[in-house]
Design goal:
about 350 residues, seven-stranded mixed β-sheet, 19 strands
Length: about 350
């Protein structure tokens, strides 16, 4: 079986190999033939070591495909079913799940330490307990979520992570109010989804902030009312909010520097929503006086901050109704052999989402 493997953390390129085997199939598991997978910035972060991940590993967590086989005890799934891959399944029994916060369930993270694959040279892990840059993957049944027949695999793959994360940040976590002012810092696939979420919620002004011109142009097509470079952000704040700051600012980069910029551009009593996944040693700081005096809400948003299955269904319904545009988010398509070109496109900001077709 073919898969793209990172041998050591810190390497820039993946090696596409044909001697990889998906392992772990048995009770409670499903085998999925991957048909499409998106390249998310979290994959790059895992490769560089920003996000913790044992190596060697197969990146990819934003995938969709067909069920090949189901293990004993699996109900509601059968061979031939079309599914998307949920990299953070809720167990339904832990304290987080019982509180209705299944997106904070840690059961899925426990899978990250168990190898999903093997080669003649030894075990290979799957990123975030999945690993979708491969032809087949074995995951727990909770990771395989059925999708309707009218949802293409590449659209389902996006919903499996980036779209759900960005939409959910605006709808579930921040709960953007109609008529409000919004700024989104970082306009890759997740940031563009946050822009679309703010538009769905009825925001009056949506300012997209990104250093890459092509991404700024894309943000305008997806609903931003204005798109500026980071250097022009202060001017936009002055013009649009009379210097007060935005009602909501979304940080979708995952760095303390941009989080601080987001905080400073949030109005007093407004909301900073942190969406980007950053490094363990990158510390965001506020002083105790401003924290008290400005009363700004700081809301992290993990995987869209809500019930994941409900969020998937909502994204599908919004897409069907034409309220969000998912097809245009796919700016590049490659086969598995072109995966390193896709990595470079994401690093330079040339792509919003690249679909890897398998």
């Amino acid at each position: 079986m073919r898969a793209a493997v990172l041998h050591e953390i810190g390497q820039d390129e993946l090696e596409v190999l044909d001697d990889v085997e998906a392992v772990g199939f048995g009770p409670g598991k499903v085998r999925i033939r991957v048909r499409a997978t998106g390249l998310c910035h979290s994959d790059l972060s895992a490769m560089s070591g920003v996000l913790p991940q044992p190596a060697p590993f197969v990146p990819g967590h934003e995938g969709a495909g067909e069920v090949v086989d189901v293990g004993d005890g699996v109900t509601g799934l059968k061979a031939g079913d079309r599914v998307l891959v949920c990299w953070l399944p809720a167990c339904g029994a832990c304290p987080s799940c019982r509180r209705g916060q299944g997106h904070l369930c840690l059961a899925g993270f426990m899978n990250a330490g168990t190898p999903n694959f093997k080669r003649p040279g030894g075990d290979v892990f799957g990123f975030a307990g999945t690993g979708t840059f491969t032809e087949e993957v074995v995951v727990g049944a909770g990771c395989a979520v059925p999708i309707p027949d009218d949802v293409p695999f590449e659209i389902a793959a996006l919903i499996g992570c980036g779209v759900t994360t960005g939409l959910g940040a605006a709808i579930n976590t921040a709960r953007v109010e109609a008529g409000s002012s919004v700024a989104v810092i970082g306009c890759g696939g997740v940031g563009i989804s946050a822009v679309q979420g703010a538009r769905v919620q009825g925001a009056a002004q949506i300012v997209a902030v990104d250093p890459v011109e092509s991404r700024r142009e894309a943000a305008l097509r997806f609903g931003a009312t204005e798109a500026v470079s980071p250097e022009a952000f202060a001017d936009a704040r002055q013009r649009i909010t009379a210097g007060e700051g935005f009602d909501y600012v979304f940080e979708v980069v995952g760095k303390s520097a941009t989080a601080r910029t987001a905080y400073e551009n949030t109005r007093r009593g407004g909301t900073l929503c942190v969406v980007g996944a950053g490094a363990l040693d990158d510390h965001f700081q506020v002083n105790m006086f401003e924290l008290f005096f400005d009363e700004k809400r700081i809301l992290p948003s993990m995987y869209g901050g809500g019930d994941v299955l409900r969020s998937y269904g909502r994204a599908i319904e919004l897409w069907r109704a034409g309220r969000i545009d998912l097809e245009s988010m796919i700016t590049h398509r490659v086969r598995l052999d072109g995966i390193n070109d896709a990595l470079d496109q994401m690093r330079t900001g040339a792509s919003l989402r690249t679909c890897v077709e398998l």
